[in-house]
Amino acid sequence: MLVKNILRHTITRVTGPDRKFQLVPFLRDNDIYNLAELYHENSKLTFGLEREMQRGVSLFSRPDSQDVYSKILPSFPTLNSIKLPTDFAVKEQIDKTILNRSSIRKFKKIKLSKNKLSKLLYWSCGVIRALKFKNKTANEIDDVYLRSYASGGALFPCDTYVIAINLENVSRGLYFYNTKSHSLDFIKRLEIEDIYKLITKGMLNLINVGDASALIVITSNFSRTKLKYSLRSYRFALLECGHIAQNFYLMASALKLGCVELGGFYDYEVDELLSLDGVDNSVLDVLVVGEPASQKSEPVKLSHINFNLKYGKSHGEV
Ligand SMILES: Cc1cc2nc3c(=O)[nH]c(=O)nc-3n(C[C@H](O)[C@H](O)[C@H](O)COP(=O)(O)O)c2cc1C
């Protein structure tokens, strides 16, 4: 708790465009104190951690903790919620979809239709079925909404935000993708400069973000799973985010859209824009989607793959 308070306090004090250093520079690139190694080591499943996790799992089977399922979606005081169309039909074979997936960095400045946006969001991270469970506290039957990707304990720590750039009938701004109502909850208007500030210069030179349709921002609310999965919950959040990102790539491929994942975004700036505290709730991933500048040369055919080749040909930069 103390460490977390120090972290939160430091974050609020040092955030801003002039920040040049890591929050904890003395722990960077140092073999002994390498945080990633330390974390990985500490989150390996040992008998000790298993015991701790069992405590968490049993907490979740207590009647009063079942409420967590109903609190899974954050809510925004918004008057403007844009309902998305519900024609979800996509006719594309999974093998072709995977074969034609590639990172696209050049976009055509045309507005993406609401229909395509709806399909992209729905199949990448939407609610695809609901399960009934008995809420013993309220003595009621509640629904657990399951989505198009797997989630440890069905706790769904990840959320998806849409930064609209060139979308049909959706003005430029920040929206929360409300999975339960399949709608975009308006949060705030943005100028294109606000969006450029989130991305490194190198990436802005490589990707014409201003011509893209939208940025997809995947965040995680770590507190949703920490109680149950202890140290492994952070791994689960990252894994879940990867599932969602791959869904976006595949759906973009199936809908003949361009998509590129963006490692080069500024975490603090994105968190600030989304009003996330950066500690319990933080951005994990950003993707750029849009109408591709050129149709990917030609659809890749299975017969074009020479399995004896050591190195394949890529559509774009690496
Ligand atoms: C976690 C992650 C971060 C990435 N970050 C970037 C990025 O910042 N800029 C970029 O142009 N591509 C980025 N990419 C895309 C990779 O460069 C791309 O997937 C790789 O070159 C393979 O090409 P392909 O996706 O077309 O198969 C990223 C991919 C992943 C998985």
* CATH topology call: NADH Oxidase
- Give a count of the beta strands, DSSP E runs of length 2 or more: 9
Sheet bearing the most strands, described?
A: 7 strands, antiparallel
Rg: 21 Å
CATH class: Alpha Beta
Q: In which order are the strands of the major sheet placed?
A: 1-6-5-4-7-9-8
If you had to describe this structure to a student in words, what would you say it looks like?
The protein has one domain: NADH Oxidase. The protein has 10 helices and 9 strands. The strands form 2 sheets. The protein has a 7-stranded antiparallel beta sheet, with helices on both faces. A two-stranded antiparallel ribbon has the order 2-3. Strand 2 and strand 3 form a beta hairpin. It is globular, with a radius of gyration of 21 Å. About 2% of the residues have low confidence. Flavin mononucleotide binds next to helix 7 and strand 8.
Task: Give descriptors for this structure.
20% strand, binds flavin mononucleotide, alpha+beta, 7-stranded antiparallel sheet, two-stranded antiparallel sheet, 318 residues
Write the layout of secondary structure elements.
Blueprint: H1 2-14, H2 35-42, H3 47-60, E1 81-83, H4 94-99, H5 114-125, E2 127-135, E3 140-147, E4 158-164, E5 173-178, E6 183-189, H6 192-196, H7 201-206, E7 214-221, H8 223-229, H9 232-254, E8 258-262, H10 267-274, E9 281-290
Helix pairs in contact: 3-8, 5-9, 8-9
This protein binds flavin mononucleotide (FMN).
Flavin mononucleotide binds at residues 102-103, 105, 203, 206, 260-264, 314-316, 318.
